[in-house]
Design brief:
342 residues, alpha/beta, six-stranded parallel beta sheet, three-stranded antiparallel beta sheet, 9 strands
């Protein structure tokens, strides 16, 4: 019996050690890069971004169709528009007493969604002055190449005010991959700079542009080398947005296009030995093209702030804008809308 207990303890010891290392150093409650790349947790860093303000915008899925449905803006986008509900650019924009915002979370392809809204009855039943369409830079060109122009979306099909979200909580598992991968990545990370680990890549910056433990580290979820842009693909992107803008203009609605600059793009100039890595081109190629829509150059806004030494425009261990970056984007949106209205 003693021998059985001894052998069992010997068998379990590595799992217990790995589990304890992971418990102390790793958290699934922090950024998407932190979770995916098994980074050491930095809880104090995240606490500084906690906002207790309410969510000021309405969700289209929760509309009360018995009341007047009139808004200044409809926002359609991906995770940059929908994560961190009270501290994303949508909520900062909605904080203004003069701007009412209705948000539509991503279902598939936001450009197809907008096309479906135009073809369907959404804009017949919901009055808006502007549509802000946001897409992460990495997927802008691929998404506009797959727009379903025959799609038609009816308001009744996307409004579900009484539908409750069902959240299933999985019980914790004693043996899971994080128990093994976190200690393993802890060992190999010092020699992994510039190489992908679980789809995440780390670069060293020439300046401390973040706070917390990773002040001079740039962690990105993807790099533009995975989604290279060409003159032709960016021109197609612009042409498709001009078409959508023209269709909205017929309905008396102005289109605002917000490509969400990739973290890698904004901080590329600060990467040590950056010449070894591909230079992002999307915003450079898009800038000179003729546009019939209102264009928000998020890269220019954030790069200018970084050049002025503003830290944490993005979360250090997440791919999204922090409240600092989101607020800058919202301020530019409000300014451009004000100019367009005068």
């Amino acid at each position: 019996m003693k021998q059985f207990i001894y052998k069992s303890a010997l068998f379990l010891l590595p799992f217990v050690v790995l589990s304890e290392i992971t418990r102390i150093g790793y958290s699934t409650e922090e950024g998407n890069i932190s979770r995916t790349s098994y980074l050491t947790k930095d809880t104090p860093y995240w606490k500084q971004f906690i906002r207790n303000t309410p969510v000021y915008y309405d969700k289209i899925s929760e509309l009360d169709t018995t009341k007047t449905m009139q808004y200044s803006v409809l926002t359609i986008g991906d995770s940059f528009s929908n994560e961190s509900a009270n501290s994303n650019y949508v909520n900062y924009l909605a904080e203004s007493d003069s701007v009412s915002v209705l948000n539509f979370g991503e279902l598939s392809n936001m450009f197809s969604d907008l096309s479906g809204f135009i073809n369907g009855d959404v804009f017949d039943k919901v009055s808006v002055d502007y549509v802000i369409i946001e897409s992460a830079e990495l997927w802008c060109t691929s998404r506009t190449q797959t727009i379903d122009k025959n799609r038609s979306i009816q308001l009744k099909d996307i409004v579900h005010p009484n539908e409750k979200e069902i959240i299933t909580i999985q019980p914790p598992q004693f043996i899971n991959k994080s128990k093994v991968l976190y200690p393993f990545y802890l060992l190999i990370r010092p020699i992994a700079e510039g190489r992908s680990l679980s789809g995440c890549t780390q670069f060293t910056l020439t300046a401390p542009l973040f706070s917390g433990k990773r002040a001079s580290d740039l962690w990105v979820y993807f790099t533009t080398s995975m989604y290279p842009n060409t003159k032709e693909t960016v021109e197609t992107f612009n042409e498709e947005l001009n078409v959508l803008s023209a269709l909205l203009t017929k309905k008396g609605i102005k289109l605002i296009v917000l490509p969400a600059a990739n973290k890698y793009s904004v901080y590329y100039e600060y990467i040590q030995s950056k010449e070894k890595y591909i230079k992002p081109q999307f915003f450079e190629l898009l800038k000179p093209l003729d546009k019939s829509y209102i264009y928000i150059d998020s890269h220019e806004i954030l790069a200018k702030a970084a050049a002025q030494g503003v830290k944490d425009l993005y979360f250090a261990d997440d791919s999204h804008w922090s409240p600092i970056g989101a607020k800058l984007i919202a301020e530019e949106l409000a300014r451009r809308m004000s100019c367009a209205s005068n």
